[in-house]
Design brief:
This protein is mostly helical. Helix content is 63%, strand content 0%. It has eleven helices and no strands. The longest helix is centred in the last third of the chain and has 33 residues, at 159-191. The chain starts with 8 loop residues before the first helix and ends in a 10-residue tail after the last helix.
Length: 261
Amino acid sequence: MHYIYPLTVSQLDSLRHQATQIVSMRLSRAEPPLRKEIVEYMLDVGSHMWSMRRSKANFFRIMGVFGGLIAVGKWFDQICNWKNPITTVLIHILFLILVLYPELILPTIFLYLFLIGVWYYRWRPKNPPHMDTRLSCADGAHPDELDEEFDTFPTSRPADIIRMRYDRLRSISGRIQTVVGDLATQGERLQSLLSWRDPRATALFVIFCLIAAIVLYVTPFQVVALLTGFYVLRHPRFRHKLPSVPLNFFRRLPARTDCML
């Protein structure tokens, strides 16, 4: 029933609150009794409340998750810029083999993942997980941030402290608002390729799509993949420091930022 008729967010919050009350009432009558604050902490009742410390910790967690992708991006950029010519030539040979024999792509990927897992076996965790103060950003948290985290809801602090925290929250929200606006702008530029808001840009894109469809229909896929890969991995002598023509074209596409107040 939870999958066929899922509960709404408000219903889940209500059930979570009722379950917390029931568990805290029963454990308060146990021997030895547990206080309500301990039960709420163990059930993570205040996870939806704002906390500067927890926000920093979640940000660093996200950066840790995407750290591998960032490292791969930097490594690929070094390959494209021929920082190590021997490695770049080996990547060219590997790419040529995978394009000519595409049935080796999936076995190569899974073999690479297997080797990574075997390599990290020596650094496997040997102790059970525990509370990490560095991961939680608790060792370098400001006293005011901790005071804000343990504050009641609604707040019980003086007006000047509330004003200071409100201004700090506005500055953080302004940065998030800017990032979200930039993401929306890029998405609207993609939509404007076919929306005819800029007739010249849409006409150029439609003609390009027609020519690309004809060329890709006539040309074998392996030839297209080889030419694309060798173009991406070309030597820096054949590169320009200015942005490429497609990127320049994309940056000049219209967005709806000029329609906002």
